[in-house]
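Q: Sequence in, structure out?
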Amino acid sequence: MPQVAFATTQMQSEASRRSRAILLLALLVVIWGVNWVVAKKSLEYVSPIWVTAFRLVPMCIIFFVVCLATKQLRIPVRADLPVIFSVGWLHMVGFSVLVSIGIQYLPAGKSIVLAYTTPLWVLPAAWLFLNEPFTPRRILGLVVGMSGLILILQPNAMDWTDRNVLIGHGFVVLAALLWAVSIVYGRAHKWVTPLFALLPWQMLLGGLTQVVLAFMLEGVPQVKWSLEMVLLVGFNGLLGNGVAYWLMNIVSRDLPAAAVSMGLLGVPLIGLFCASLFLGEVLGPALLIATVLIIAGIILGTIPKSTPAA
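A: Exactly. Output:
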């Protein structure tokens, strides 16, 4: 009986953790959806690589202070160094910098769609490296969700002879690939140091790398200072980077990699509506159909099939 009680408690704890992770994933989706519009507007005031540094470096300092104040600061153990490099370089630097450059050449809405082709890369990688199965339900969710994204993207309508179009699309697709690698590794990693205590170190690595790249490629920062600029970069840093990266670490640990990537398909949905509302980007009938497809794909890919009661 004690063993049965212990197993029941473990199952309840796992279910509770999974439920919390799903709610945090939903919050992350909203933050990142809005953040795309904020990132696009920020480029009116700061060059693309410097803007990524301006929003990450202050958050790095804040998180170090918070960890010190709450006595949660830890020196990372050797076993956690790979995940620091994975998140710091692949996501915070690779994804953020490539997207920030690529979004200069593309509408915010289409940039979001391209960036969230990530599930195309995560699903086969999770199957190959994490032994996550290609269940019929997951495959159907991926097909339905990605059909919606392709419908929004409308590749036949693009001018593929335009160099800027190629640069924009290429950079954002490469960003999606790097993020997929980070998601898969985050799921496979055996975490030792608490997630919150690792975040400042990931930010330190990412922020320092961004500053070095910015000086090398863009020179001394040229900033058009204004209250709007400060608010945009502040939102982008505090929520779009600090809080969002913490949430991403949690959901990557507590949910299957394929489920995380499918859930993040909600980001372009929110981002597209925000782009229309705040940037005046036109929403056509295709978006309404795609919206239904994306929502259906998210449901199929992230919500587990209910099992009958014993």
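The chain has a mean pLDDT of 84.
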